[in-house]
Each structure stands twice: as C-alpha cells, then as structure tokens.
Amino acid sequence: MTDTPEPTKRVPHTVIWHDKLAAGFRRTTEKLGGNLAGLLTKEKLDRQTLDEIEEALIASDLGPVTAARVRERLEDERYDKGIDEAGIRAVVADEVAKILRPVAKPLEIEAFPRPQVILVIGVNGSGKTTTIAKLAHLLQEQDYQVMLVAGDTFRAAAIGQLKVWAERIGVPIISGKEGGDAASLVWEGVKQGTAIGTDVLIVDTAGRLQNKAGLMDELSKIRRVLGRLNPAAPHDVVLVLDATTGQNALNQIEIFGRDAGVTGLVMTKLDGTAKGGVLVAAAEKFGMPIHAIGVGETLEDFRPFDPDEVAGLIAGVTPRVK
C-alpha cells in the first residue's frame, strides 16, 4: 500500500512578507549594529557615551531628531543604570515606531465619481515606472479596476516599459509617442476610465528634477486639464523615493513637496541599501503619509507596512512572524 504524501503546508503571506522585509532591512540593521558596537563598555551611561550613541544613530541615517529622542530617553530612564546593546536597540525600536505609526497610511480609494486619479512623480532612476506597476497590482488585489497612463512622454523607454508592465498585469493603458502631450493622454485616460467604470487611473509623469520649471509647467497643465473633467482631481500626488540615495531623498521630498503638491510617499529599493533609516528620517521631518514600501523586484515585493514591524527590523529586535 502506497503511503499518501502529506499535503504541502502553505506559508502565510504575512510570513513571506516579513521575511522579505527582514532581508530588505538586513543591511540597515547591520549598519546600526556596527555603529553601536564597542560603545557600551562602561557600567553607566556618561555624557560622552550618550554623545557617541547619538552620533551612531545619525550615522545610521535615522536623522538627528530621532537620534536626539533616543538619547533623551536613555538619559531620562537609564542614565544611572547602564545599558547593553540590546537595551538600546529596544529603545530605538520603540521611538522609531512612535514616529512611523502616524504616517503609515495605505492609499485609500475613495473618490466619487470615479476614477480616482493618482499622479506618480519622482526623479529618473527612482524606480517610478516599476513602482506604478506594483501599485496597480496591489490595487488589483483589492478588487479595484485600474488603468495606466504613460505620461512620461519625454522617454520612449518609459513608455515602452510601462506598456510591457500593463500587458503583464492585465490592465489597459493610454499611451502615445515620445514627445507627445501628456495632458492630452490624461484627458483621454479619464474619459475612457469613466466610460468603462475604472476605479483608479494611475498617471506616470516625467522625472526631470534637474529641469524643474519644465516639469512644474507640465504638471500644472495636467492639473488644469483634470480640473475641467473633475475639480477634485488629481486626488493623490505620490512621490517615489529611492532609498539608496539616503539623505538626498529628503531633498527630493522638500522640493517636490513644495512645488508639486505631494500628498504621499512610497519608498523603493530598501533591499539594496544600508540607508533604510532614511525612511524614519523622512517620516519625522515631513510627516507625510507613507503609503507603501518596496523591498524587491517582483510585484509582490511592494506592500503597505506595519510601523511596529519595520521599527523592530531596523533596530534588530523583531521576532519572526508566524
């Protein structure tokens, strides 16, 4: 009699995502540990050691304000008791979670009438076009009907890449030729999206921070066109940030936030850098909603995040999710 093989157990999605996050933040965690190593050789925390801990946290891209918060808490609670590295990591995790909780906000699809128009902006090389595909896939998983607009008409490669992604995930796309009028494409997208009952219209835009005036003129034109069709549009202006750029990502938030009316952020390439702490610095400095993060190349490597889980991973104290 042949034995019946036991059914293969499916790994829960939460575990898969946690493992990907852990792998993505590994270099950031190791950087923090390396910066803290060797600082805690004394029984008590004196001012010099506190200074060194604060500097180590800043060097880990967590930002000066976050570092100061951790230092202040260590000074208030444990100054006369001494503390080991695990204790510092626990304090870091707790303070980082406090910063991330208010900004961890998934993108809500609430517009009426439909479609909800999402402009996606970001400098060339930030992963913007791929992130659009990942965002579309994430919304599909939530049973929303999605349409794309290839509005980065200054780069033929961007148009071609987005068309490939649209075919791969099975969503319609409005596109034109290189050098075409992005606002006209958006107009057509809203008309077609309205006609077929699309829930979400995601618009790629040109990533030309070095030519800010031209970019802002283009975005203004798109806004004017949208205003004629739906005064509430665009409903969201999402900035894609490349975590590997570290502190330069903060400069991008400041410039685009001021000039392009950014309403929320996504951060990509967290798996390829030791600078993942910039996620915390961005949250603390700007307080903008962070809708999702990316830690890999596949469609499933992009999700809204749990602030406590991410804080624990950055600090190196989060247990494995079951």
Description:
The protein is an alpha/beta fold. The protein is 49% helix and 11% strand. The protein is built from twelve helices and eight strands. The protein has helices spanning 13-24, 26-36, 47-59, 64-78, 85-100, 128-141, 156-169, 182-196, 212-229, 248-260, 278-286, 307-315, and strands at 116-121, 146-149, 173-174, 200-204, 236-242, 264-268, 290-294, 302-303. The chain has an eight-stranded mixed sheet, with helices on both faces. Strand 5 (236-242), helix 10 and strand 6 (264-268) form a beta-alpha-beta unit. Helix 4 crosses helix 5 (85-100). The chain is elongated. The model has no long low-confidence stretch (mean pLDDT 87).
Secondary structure: elements and pairs:
Layout: H1 13-24, H2 26-36, H3 47-59, H4 64-78, H5 85-100, E1 116-121, H6 128-141, E2 146-149, H7 156-169, E3 173-174, H8 182-196, E4 200-204, H9 212-229, E5 236-242, H10 248-260, E6 264-268, H11 278-286, E7 290-294, E8 302-303, H12 307-315
Parallel strand pairs: 1-4, 1-5, 2-3, 2-4, 5-6, 6-7
Antiparallel strand pairs: 7-8
Labels describing this entry:
single chain, 322 residues, alpha/beta, eight-stranded mixed β-sheet, elongated
Q: Name the shape in a single word.
A: elongated
**What is the H/E string?**
HHHHHEHEHEHEHEHEHEEH
Largest sheet: 8 strands, mixed
Number of DSSP E strands: 8
Give the helix tally: 12
Physical arrangement of strands within the biggest beta sheet: 3-2-4-1-5-6-7-8
Low-confidence stretches: none
The whole-number mean of residue pLDDT values reads: 87
Structural class call reads alpha/beta
Percentage beta strand: 5-15%
Radius of gyration: 22 Å
The level of helicity is: 40-55%
Q: How widely separated are the two ends?
A: 36 Å
